[in-house]
Each structure stands twice: as C-alpha cells, then as structure tokens.
Amino acid sequence: MSRFNLRLPGWDGTSLALDAHLPEPSSWPVPTVVTRTPYGRGHHLAEGAGWVRRGFGYVVQDVRGRYDSDGVWECYRHERGDGAALADWIRAQEWSDGRLVGYGGSYSGYTAWALAVERPESVPAVVSMGPSMALHRTKFEDGVLRLAEHAAWWLERADGRVSRDGLTALLLGGDPGALARLPVVDLPDRLGTRLPRWAEVVRRGPDHRPEEEITERDLAALPTAGLHVGGWYDLLVDETLLHWRTVGAARSPRPPQRLIIGPWGHDLAFTGRTRHGDREHGPQSLLDLGATQVAWIRACLAGADPGPDLVLPVGGRSWLSWPAAGGESVLHAHPDGTLRTVPADAPPGAFVYDPSDPCPSLAPGADRRPLDGRPDVLRFGTPPLPAPLSFTSARVRLDVAAPADDVDWIVRLAEHTAEGQVFELARGRTGGSGRLALSPVWVSLPAGSRLRLEITGSDFPRLARSLGTGADRYTTTATATVHQRVNAARLVLETS
C-alpha cells in the first residue's frame, strides 16, 4: 500500500511532500528506509515497491524547494532540520518500529548522513553511495573549479524547482565552444539561460563553508553502521573512502562499516555491465548491488555480522577486502621518457602550455592513445612488468618551475596494456612543487603491462584552465602561453 503526496512540516513549518510505501498492516511495525531527494520522488516508485516486497517501509521526500515541496531550494541548507522533522514523524507512525535506515546517493547521500547526525538514536544504519557532501568539496578539486561537472549540475539541477535532464547536451550541442570562452563566470549568459547562483559559487571558491556542513568530527561520533558504495570512475570516490574510514571511528566499539567499490561511475549504472568506456572489466565485475544492500541492512538491524568489504581492484579478478599497508615502490622520471628505480641526473623535461589549446579531458574509461601526439604532455613509462603489480595508492613528489603564478600541473598515472591501450588509473592537480596524492585507486596489473606517468598543464574542461597570466581564471579573459619545466618527478606506489 502506498500513500502519495503526504504533506509534512519541515523544521520551520514549510510544507514538504513525501510518499510512504508500506507493507500490509499485518506486518506492522516495520523498519523504514528513508530517502530525501532533490531529483523528484516520483523516480522512486519501483524502488518503493521493491523495499515493500522485502518487508520494509520506504519513505521518499522531495527536499525543500524541489518538485512538490514548498519553500526555496538552496542546496545544503535546511536539510538537517528538515531531516530531523521527517525522522520524528516516521517514528510516531503506527507502522514504524522506530528504526530508520538512511539511504541515498550523491546529494541524497548527504541528506542520509544529515538524518543520522541529527537523529542518531533513530538511524542505526546508512547506505551511502558516492555522497556529495558540500559544494566546496564536490565542485572544486585542489582549489580549482570542476568546470564541466559544475556546469552540467548547475544547468540541470541547481537553480530551479525541477530538474532539466538533457539541457546540458542540448545547449552545448548547439554551442560546443561555450565552455572554452571567457570569462567562466559569464557562462550562463553565453548559453542564454538564467542561473542566479552560478556566479556566487564560482566567485566565492572552495574556501566557503556552508552552515550545514557535516564534518569529519560529526561522522566519527556517530553510532551508525555504514554501507559505503562507490566506483573507481566516480569523481566522489574519495568521499566514499573518507566515510568508510571515519564514520563511528571515535566510538568503542566502532559500529560496523562495510565498503563496496567496483568499476562504476557516479550513478552506479554499470553494476550490471562489464564495460566502462573502452575498458572491459570482465564477468567478475558484475554485482547484484540491490540484493547486497538488502542483506546488509537486515544483518545490521538483527545485530549480525554484516559481511566483509567487497572491492574489485582495477584489473582485478576477484572481490577482496581492503588490504593492510604493505611496502613502497619508488620510480623516478628520466629525460629519455623512462620511469626507473634510480634517480635522474637531469631534469626530465619541459613543455609549453597554451590556454587557447588546453590538453583535453577524456571520459572515464576512455583509451588515451588519441592524445599521444600532443607536445604539451610529458610521458614517462616503465618496461613491461616482469610480474604482477598491486598497489593501493599513488603519490608524486614534484620539483617544478614556471614564470607565471596560478598555473596547473596535472599528473596522471596510466596503464599501458599489453594490447596497446592506455587507461587512466589515477590523477591529481597541484599548483607547484611538493607532494601530490593522486586520486584513490587500488590497481592490480598483470605482467606485461606498463606504467605510464603523464605531466601536463591542463585537464579541460574537467577543470577550469589556467589563463597563464596569473590573473583570476574565472573573471578575466586575457591569456598567455607558459613555459613549464619539470626539474624532478618521483612516483611512490603503496604496494599490497
């Protein structure tokens, strides 16, 4: 049985819309899975029926200002108070046994954790999938705007009552050069659309902290079990790992935390497919994520063992638990384009960065060989590996120089397969010399593959590019070419 378009006051009395999907009264009271979404509760009808078939109640609510909920949509505001009001209402219903399971991905991952932080006594478990926890954490990378992702999300999701799916493809299809034209802050005007808060977010940058940010301290204090689901191709996989390592960490005993990561993107749409982009991951990459989540929730609510981590390393053949730290493997970039265990006796190279022709971004899982001819990319590689290599993190120590301020150093670690394809494994961006931790990864490379380290000056339009002048990259239009020199580059792999 389902009850549609119920109205519930938020923390300040604003009327919010929800649907409640419930099993037959003979099974009451039941635990309730809860999703609070900005993407329209109507998309969760099949999900609601699925939870009911498995003996759960399912409540899905439009967040304030979205779809049928009243109020003004301001992302990352009001969610903690509105979530608390919803939790209190559910607990008071005759069909509820008082136990809530926060459930959601992306922004709904944030609202699930907000529910747990505000009502920890009511939320014994959270299923979190690629949580998008705050604008400064999801829209910026090492201080630089994630231009393509931010533009797509803002065009389709941020400034409006309903989502406008497909608008990005429509507008950029009609004007393919829109992201490249300057200034960045005027993008909505160039596309002929009104985005009132676009300029505000771009201008205030990554140092802005919203009033309702959920901190690591908040997460560590939770008594909540967590199922943390992410994908190697998800730009927010670092958030998944952070939550897995942090939730409940200040408690003794710590509530159970389980990690699931596979070769998927942010929408987890590839859990039933073996291919992502040009990369084939094989039948071992298939996972019935829904059944796994249901079994985990039931185990947590029953106080039983919720099961081990399930992580499929890139290139791996089986699902494993995250390994303990092992040793380190150190490789140095040499001017002949090799990566070797001995330090180089000369600077490994230099390139000219031209903001009018930035090194282009490729889709996750894409074969990178089409970019091999670019002169603004330094490439360093190993010989074919004589034996399999597994590592769980990668970092780079750079000694670099450039005559301009506000330049980018994009570092990318890739696999050059025995078949000749080149696939990104991890990447990072920094503004100068020092230590750079690359994006999270666990890799299992077979003998015969080669490692490749690439260094360049842009990753556009994934990241807003440097203009080469030292001026603000979002509000100015002048550009200049920059000679960028790498004096030394050392790659450190944490092996397992």
Keywords:
20% helix, globular, Rossmann fold, 24 strands, 496 residues, 3 domains, Jelly Rolls, alpha+beta
Protein architecture, described:
This protein is an alpha+beta fold and 496 residues long. It has three domains: 2-134 and 210-311, Alpha/Beta hydrolase fold, catalytic domain (Rossmann fold), CATH 3.40.50; 137-207, no CATH class; 328-495, Galactose-binding domain-like (Jelly Rolls, Sandwich), CATH 2.60.120. It has eleven helices and 24 strands. The chain has helices spanning 45-53, 79-91, 107-118, 135-138, 147-158, 167-174, 187-191, 198-204, 216-220, 237-246, 289-302, and strands at residues 2-9, 15-21, 30-37, 57-62, 96-106, 125-131, 140-141, 144-145, 225-231, 257-262, 275-276, 279-280, 310-311, 328-333, 339-340, 349-353, 377-381, 389-401, 409-416, 422-430, 434-437, 443-445, 450-456, 482-495. The strands form five sheets. The protein has a nine-stranded mixed β-sheet, with helices on both faces. The longest helix has 14 residues, at 289-302. It starts with a strand and ends with a strand. The mean pLDDT is 96. This is X-Pro dipeptidyl-peptidase. GO terms for molecular function: dipeptidyl-peptidase activity. It holds the Pfam family Peptidase_S15. Keywords: Hydrolase. It comes from Streptosporangium carneum.
